[in-house]
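sorry for the late reply, my laptop died twice this morning and i had to redo everyting from scratch. anyway the thing you sent over, i finally got around to it. pasting the sequence first so we're on the same page, its 141 residues, then the predicted structure underneath. double check i copied it right bc i was rushing
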Amino acid sequence: MNGENSQRTDQQTGTDANRDPLTGTPVGTGVLVAGPQARSRAEIMDHTAEDAYWRTHYAERAYVDRDTPYEIYQAAYQTGYEGPHQYPGKTFAEVESNLQRDFEKSEGNSTLTWDKARNATRDAWNRVDRALSGDADGAAR
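ok and here's the structure:
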């Protein structure tokens, strides 16, 4: 496939449309993952929505220091909500050392040690993992 459908001008709006190379359907941008199963998994997660969720709800968590701004926890949450997509079919426990390494490489503004970041990472992992398994509301717990 030469990808001729991947970028084409949208006739109605006159703007470039990001198109699915298989169907030609306009799609949003996001995580690039190989294979049909991974593709459907990637379409489930919206990084902006996950970040907004945690920005709004992080202070409700028992492990959070209420005087610490969200930006300190942000890399830990991001590591967690990206984890199930990076390590499909694995549990948090199976890849915790990988997640720790991922957090420590991309900690950004965070001053958290892994011991403090771990709970936020696991929390975000569990939220996405439940959504991927069809239990977004946590009813199967």
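The longest helix spans residues 114-132.
thats about all i looked at so far, will dig more tmrw
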